[in-house]
Design the sequence.
């Protein structure tokens, strides 16, 4: 996951001298064929990309299924597979919260409540919606912060992926960075968002095909779920690694050091809703849908598949905890003592089960995950930079073909800047520690601004801007406070026993509250826009098309209800 919900992956500056696994000719052939396929898709779709609408929004002609799978795939990166498998080994099944309570309600909310306003307003981006609702100041602030975060995150993901390839396979780190990045630049610059989306659907299939091997074979070896629970209890002497909620009554009763209020209010409400409903990397895929019903259905399809992701991400970590003969260590301890770290649990499990061919499929899944995440970052950056920075402030009123050409150039330049960011990260490992904080600075307040903008017509342009600014500054201030005075963690996260993960959750919650309070206060002190200027942007001023005429099986609300019921059942089963 390449956003504020990304796993606690730790970059190691010193890496193992010997690779964990090695590939045969058949494995390498599978990887080469994969690279040729993604480039072929980009080359083929170049002929269909002739306008700015084609390049930046895929012509707004994607079906609900294609948009939904792309919506999920752009978020499912290689760091997700590696990082959360490591987190599951360390924290147990608690990592599943980042896929269920930390995603499903927000994805359903996006589809049913927020998507109509994004789609009916015909905006091309989230900053574009802010310009229509709150004016240029809010748009400019959101666009610049998003562009900065996206490029930095793309570079860090690039370096992390190259580091994974070096640790796992012994590949040269520069080779991994340049070959993978230039491939992404080529197929996105050729076919724009449409190329990114169709490749993400292909990558979705490959990720699942490669990542399902370990959980299926592992569950067979351990004797199913009951056998897995028994083996983990035997290995750890604890029973709290396989329960989602029953250990969250106290910060001290679970391996993650977090309370259920942090999970529900911080993760499940502010962080999750902020990411899934306002991060343009994922929202852009849904804006490419062919009509409003497809746009509402796409996040629901994504939510249905999202509930299954812990099977390929969390379960391998739990299986490693139960089955590996060696005890894995924190990264720093592994470097000091010479053992394997938590971060190596997935490659160790791949090596345990996968022979020639299957191993190539598993590694292709990791590479596909990286490319899907990077293509998402690059295409979203090109759109926001071209429409919300270049066209808004640098070169207004140019022709559509000019912006199309600029988008292609911007895509390539964005990749080169990301490569530069990757090399910068090599010099400063601690930058990775700041990335999660960087996202939390902007995403949580942005959610407050967009939510009030859509649902409260009394919110004014001044209220929207100053609320967003105050929430962002509050988040940065709390982060600095804890860095300068670690004892402040007990105040920000409500407990001296809280750990870093809990701090992120509560900081997001407080910054969102600051944003909402300031927005409401300033709005009541300033003059609102007339209702006539809010048509298509705000609830109560916008006529939402009804769906009573559609058959029940085509109504988004019906399928959202089904997904919600399954979501509740899963949480009860794994309570």
Sequence:
């Amino acid at each position: 996951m390449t956003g504020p919900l990304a796993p606690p992956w730790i970059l190691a500056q010193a890496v193992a001298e010997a690779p964990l696994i090695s590939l045969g000719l058949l494995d390498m052939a599978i990887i080469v064929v994969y690279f040729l396929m993604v480039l072929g898709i980009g080359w083929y779709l170049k002929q269909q990309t002739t306008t700015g609408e084609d390049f930046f929004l895929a012509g707004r002609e994607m079906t609900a299924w294609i948009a939904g799978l792309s919506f999920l795939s752009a978020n499912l990166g290689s760091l997700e597979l590696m990082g959360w498998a490591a987190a599951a080994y360390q924290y147990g099944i608690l990592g599943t919260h980042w896929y269920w309570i930390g995603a499903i309600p927000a994805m359903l909310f996006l589809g049913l409540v927020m998507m109509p306003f994004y789609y009916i307003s015909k905006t091309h981006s989230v900053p574009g919606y802010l310009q229509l609702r709150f004016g240029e100041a809010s748009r400019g602030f959101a666009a610049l912060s998003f562009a900065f975060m996206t490029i930095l995150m793309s570079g860090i993901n690039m370096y992390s992926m190259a580091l994974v390839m070096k640790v796992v396979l012994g590949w040269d780190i520069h080779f991994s960075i340049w070959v993978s990045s230039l491939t992404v630049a080529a197929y996105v610059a050729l076919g724009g968002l449409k190329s990114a989306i169709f490749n993400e659907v292909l990558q979705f299939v490959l990720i699942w095909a490669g990542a399902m091997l370990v959980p299926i074979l592992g569950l067979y070896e351990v004797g199913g779920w009951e056998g897995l629970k028994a083996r983990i209890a035997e290995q750890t002497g604890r029973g709290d690694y396989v329960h989602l909620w029953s250990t969250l009554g106290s910060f001290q009763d679970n391996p993650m050091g977090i309370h259920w209020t942090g999970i529900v209010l911080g993760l499940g409400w502010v962080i999750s809703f902020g990411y899934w409903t306002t991060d343009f990397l994922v929202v852009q895929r849904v804006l490419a849908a062919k009509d409003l019903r497809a746009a509402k259905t796409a996040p629901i399809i994504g939510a249905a598949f999202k509930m299954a992701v812990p099977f390929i991400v969390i379960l391998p970590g739990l299986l490693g905890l139960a089955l590996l003969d060696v005890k894995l260590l924190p990264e720093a301890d592994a470097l000091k003592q010479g053992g394997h770290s938590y971060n190596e649990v997935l490659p160790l499990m791949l090596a345990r089960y996968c022979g020639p061919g299957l191993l190539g499929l598993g590694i292709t899944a990791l590479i596909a995950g990286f490319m899907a995440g990077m293509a998402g970052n690059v295409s979203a950056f090109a759109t926001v930079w071209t429409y919300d920075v270049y066209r808004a402030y640098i070169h207004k009123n140019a022709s559509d073909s000019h912006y199309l050409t600029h988008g292609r150039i911007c895509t390539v330049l964005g990749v080169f800047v990301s490569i530069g960011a990757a090399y910068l990260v090599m010099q400063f490992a601690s930058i990775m520690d700041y990335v999660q904080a960087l996202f939390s600075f902007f995403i949580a307040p942005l959610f407050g601004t967009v939510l009030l903008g859509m649902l409260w017509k009394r919110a004014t342009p001044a209220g929207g801007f100053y609320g967003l600014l105050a929430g962002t500054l509050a988040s940065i201030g709390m982060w600095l406070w804890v860095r300068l005075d670690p004892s402040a963690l007990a105040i920000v996260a409500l407990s001296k026993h809280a750990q870093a993960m809990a701090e992120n959750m509560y900081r997001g919650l407080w910054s969102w509250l600051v944003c909402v309070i300031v927005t409401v206060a300033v709005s009541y002190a300033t003059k609102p826009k007339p209702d006539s200027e809010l048509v298509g942007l705000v609830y109560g001023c916008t006529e939402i098309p009804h769906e009573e005429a559609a058959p029940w099986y085509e109504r988004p609300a019906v399928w959202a209800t089904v997904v919600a019921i399954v979501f509740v059942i899963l949480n009860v089963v794994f309570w």
Q: What stands out?
A: Residues 1-15 have pLDDT under 50 and may be disordered. Residues 11 and 160 are 7 Å apart (CA to CA). The chain has 23 helices and no strands.
